[in-house]
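A brief tutorial aside. Many learners find it easier to grasp structure tokens once they have seen a single protein encoded end to end. The record that follows does exactly this for CN hydrolase domain-containing protein. Read the sequence first, then the structure, and try to relate runs of similar tokens to stretches of the chain.
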Amino acid sequence: MNSVRHVEELLARAERTAGPGAFVALAADRALAEADTAATQVQAIEGGSFVLMATQVISPAGTDLFATTDEQRRLLSAGGGCSRVYGPDGRMITKEPDEGAEGLIHADIDLDEIVIAKIAYALARSLRAPRRDPSGPSSRATPSGRVGG
């Protein structure tokens, strides 16, 4: 199992065993911001929890300091502000951040939303579950000892 998949498994296990109010932090890579955003939303919905996606803003001066080759400058561009918080229903509950601005994000949360989201998710799963056909095979044993109808 690769390291990313291993971390995902550990996060999922920790989230399943945590009580209401569990927060999962995902570190986003600016180059993969769209994929990280989608993964964060899915994590919020599947886990029925508030999820923080944290990123670091890199200034042009920071790029000049850390990138010493053209290849590094290409990979390490200025900006990166896409930190946000998602609610248990997958909606972003922070303002859309300015990509180049440094600052903190904050969100007012209501922990009751976790319970509501988990109930809605469980209800949706139960409605999707296959129904047993009462006219189908029964589970009673026949005189020959076989199960069937």
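Self-check: The mean pLDDT is 74. If you spotted this yourself, you are ready for the next section.
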